[in-house]
Design brief:
Layout (H helix, E strand, L loop, with lengths): L1 E2 L17 E7 L9 E5 L3 E2 L13 E7 L2 E7 L4 H5 L9 E4 L9 E6 L5 E6 L5 E4 L17 E5 L6 E9 L1 E4 L6 E4 L3 E10 L14 E4 L15 E2 L13 H4 L4 E7 L2 E6 L8 E4 L14 E6 L5 E6 L7 E4 L9 E7 L2 E8 L6 E3 L6 E4 L9 E5 L4 E5 L7
Parallel strand pairs: 9-16, 10-15, 11-17, 22-27, 23-26
Antiparallel strand pairs: 1-4, 2-3, 2-5, 5-6, 7-19, 8-9, 8-13, 10-16, 11-12, 12-15, 13-14, 18-19, 18-28, 20-29, 21-22, 21-24, 23-27, 24-25, 28-29
């Protein structure tokens, strides 16, 4: 495995082997990588690991640390699809009851690098964990690696932009009350926000003191680098706490989740998928381990269906629609994957739901917000690359 250090300008950095060392670790199932740690010096030197030859279904995570700088990568099995897509068994899952109204959203609690447990909102419309630096009280210095490269992210529909830095740290997940521990991730990329700009403002802006947002979605596009210093947040499974749980990376838990009107299940097993109808997802181009959103079609009243993709986004209570629309209409019908094979079908009354129409050109896209969960349970199978629904052919409401 090659390990090369790069400076902030993207050029390879020469290291002094006598004083600068890169610590490289591989996190994978027991018995697959018996010697998962190495230290290398210089530039372009290799870190050697022993692989047992055993099959593994979930990607392994690699971390490299040089002082306060860090980076992560994943190792994918060459024949991952047959192993990952075997019939679901009785592997472990984590269930969290969500007794609140669907419209109020989902949440958990988390501790970054052993720090104070704080409430975090859950969002399937993004994939990164963003936390205000002020919420890292008590974080262990030897587990919180950074600050690394500067970064920024803009959330919609609020238009708020956060500025900060990447860190590498393990993340412990708890129930909403912050008492019951659900699991801990392997060291993963965390975005620590230091400044928050409201829509239309540019830096300098007030310090960020409130952000605590955990993106656990998939298939989100990686934005282009901005002209301002700092990279945008990348949108990959490496920043998704659900996909980086130790029981997923190092153990038997099948990666994915289930969202229902009254609960959240992390991981998939035979019981949690009972009654679900699945549709295959397309791989995300040039991003191993990630999948594009499920196919879907929408129509206005009894008009023709317009087809593209959908996003089930529990981070917002409104809808976003990219499609050509008539001047007046009474309902929006949504089906997935298509009108000829509707695994889920429901209708939305625009008088009762906030709908934002943007970019009325191809490709067609609908962000359902949390409203889909009033009609069906949604499943995401990251290991097999498929999405599922329980509650098909739901009548209009």
């Amino acid at each position: 495995m090659g390990a090369t250090a790069y400076a902030g300008d993207g050029r390879a950095a020469m290291l002094d082997p006598s004083s600068q060392r890169i610590d490289v670790r591989v996190y994978g199932p027991d018995g697959v990588v018996p010697a998962p740690q190495a230290t290398v010096g210089g530039t372009g030197l290799a870190a050697a690991f022993r692989y047992s030859g055993r099959a593994f279904a979930n990607p392994m995570t690699v971390t490299a640390v040089l002082g306060t700088m860090s980076n992560t990568a994943q190792i994918f099995p060459r024949a991952s699809m047959p192993a990952a897509c075997a019939p679901l068994g009785d592997s472990a899952t984590i269930h969290v009851a969500e007794p609140r109204s669907v419209r109020r959203g989902f949440g958990l609690s988390a501790s970054i690098a052993g720090g104070k447990v704080v409430h975090v909102g859950l969002d399937t419309g993004s994939t990164s964990l963003a936390i205000a630096k002020s919420k890292l009280a008590g974080a262990l210095e030897d587990e919180l690696i950074g600050p690394g490269r500067s970064a920024q992210v803009t959330y919609q529909p609020s238009g708020v932009t956060l500025y900060g830095n990447y860190y590498l740290a393990p993340v412990a997940l708890f129930g909403k009350d912050g008492k019951k521990k659900l699991g801990t991730t392997v060291p993963m990329e965390v975005f620590v926000a230091t400044m928050q700009c409201t829509k239309g403002r540019v830096p300098p802006c007030p310090a960020d003191t409130g952000t605590a947002y955990m993106g656990v979605g998939f298939g989100r596009p990686s934005p282009k680098p901005p002209r301002l210093p700092g990279l945008p947040l990348m949108a990959t499974p490496l920043e998704n706490a659900f996909m980086q749980l130790a029981d997923v990376v190092q153990g038997p838990m099948h990666p994915g989740f289930v969202l229902s009107p009254d609960g959240l299940t992390i991981g998939l097993d035979r019981a949690s998928a009972t009654g679900a109808s699945f549709v295959g997802l397309s791989p995300y181009p040039e991003r191993f381990g990630d999948w594009q959103g499920p196919p879907a079609c929408i129509r206005f009243d009894a008009g023709a269906f317009q087809c593209g993709r959908m996003l089930v986004d529990i981070g917002i209570g409104s809808m976003f629609v990219h499609a050509k629309r008539p001047a007046r209409f009474d309902t929006i019908g949504i089906v997935s994957p298509n009108a000829g094979r509707p695994l889920v079908r429901y209708a939305v009354d625009p008088k009762t739901v906030t709908i934002r129409f943007v970019h009325p050109s191809q490709p067609v896209f609908v962000n359902t917000g949390r409203d889909l969960l009033a009609a069906a349970t949604f499943l995401y199978d990251a290991g097999c690359g498929r999405a599922g629904f329980i509650g098909a052919h739901v009548s209009s409401r």
